[in-house]
Predict the structure.
Amino acid sequence: MPALLYAIFNTALPEEIFFRGFILKKIPSKFGFYAANLIQSVLFGLLHGTMFFSIAGMIKAMIIIVLTGAIAFCMGYVNEKKAGGSIIPSWCLHVLSNAFASFVALFSIL
């Protein structure tokens, strides 16, 4: 239960507020939606890749950057183009992803 609460409120919510709720809302006025979405997704990917660089190595960190960046781009698109600007869809997906990763780590499933 603590891992789930942590996944919901200590990682997913603040990251969604910052990346999709703040960055993705501020940048489009200067660069347009697609450039803003690309910027927030690259920053999101870099954040996650650098967190794992020391334990995963360069190749795996690059994979993490690309995958989390691609997911962030999709979440930004869904939020802005399908959910009327709400961060709720990406927050829910982020919670599920973090909860899954927490359970895998806690129980050494993979």
Remarks:
- The chain has a mean pLDDT of 92.
